[in-house]
Amino acid sequence: CENVSQMKCALAASFSGGYFNIDGSVDFDQDTSQTVSNKSLLAQSTLIWNGGTRELHDKKTIKDPHLMDRWRNSLITTPTMLTTDMYLEPMSTMVQLVNGNKYEATYDALKDFLGGNFTVVANRQKVEEERLREEQKKKEEEERKKNEQNKKEDTIVTPTVSSGPDCFPPHSIVTIFENGIEKMKPMQELNVGDLVLSYDVKKKISTFSPLILWAHADQYRDVKYLLIKLEDSSKIKISGEHLIMVGINHKTMMAKNVNKGDALYMLHKGFVKVVAITEVIETGLLAPITAAGNIFVEGILASCYANLVDVKILGELVKISGQTVGDLGFLPLRVARYFF
């Protein structure tokens, strides 16, 4: 196409379904005829046929309207399927790729053919990128709202975890003496007055001592405990400030001060070394007080008291252990049980 008139003629032929004749004219379904040179177009073109009768796949078919009709009709019986997506692109864009000087002429021809100005659709890749950005933005917003909702739910349902009062988990196992028989049961099933396995430090023998009261009891509170494991696989869960017997002299110290290698006293086994100490969260807490001031929990000897330290009087002359301080504190209750 060398000028606007020729391009208009070619566009008209394409949109109207006309044919290029050998003499350079274009036939239309209507009684209209325009002149356009098609010899150069055919000479520079490579024909690729898809579908229809194979014997009609020839340039002669392009030049002969009757052969073209036959080929079109043959597509009904031997059609072809598109293998790529089709989309519209302004002709001016394609022409500019070949020769930028023809851009304005082609654009003007198409504008004149369409009857006015037109807007070029944005590049499909840019449109797709914009769509993906919008989807990502929407997804991020939904994720943000979801996280905010989860935070609100966590605020509502997450219980407060504390490290005290200083007790044992309710499911800790203790041994009682009932109807002449030793029984093991969860601490939460104990009742005041039950005879619970304890230790007589002076006589250095195990004994059953009555439960005289609960210092603390809460079945629903979440508490941070220390999980102390021994080399024989025994273990006890106890709060950090609670006293526990350590070493051959049954020295009492807070559980948080127990170290690996320290020896705890076990019923029927004697002293067993600590091999690991970790923190765990358990629901519920119980602090039983026995007349003996101590109790075997999970078979390991522990004190009934907490938050007590050794007391020194007159410098270093007199030293009272934390366990003794606890015994003195609960002495009135121990005496009162004989009268009431």
TrEMBL record:
Top-level taxon of origin: Eukaryota
Compositional bias ranges of the Basic and acidic residues kind: 128-155
InterPro entries: Dev_Signal_Hedgehog-like, Hedgehog_Hint, Hint_dom_N, Hint_dom_sf, Intein_N
Region annotation (Disordered) ranges: 128-162
Signal sequence residues: none
Name of a matching Pfam family: Hint
Record domain Hint: where: 165-268
GO biological process: intein-mediated protein splicing; protein autoprocessing
Protein name: Hint domain-containing protein
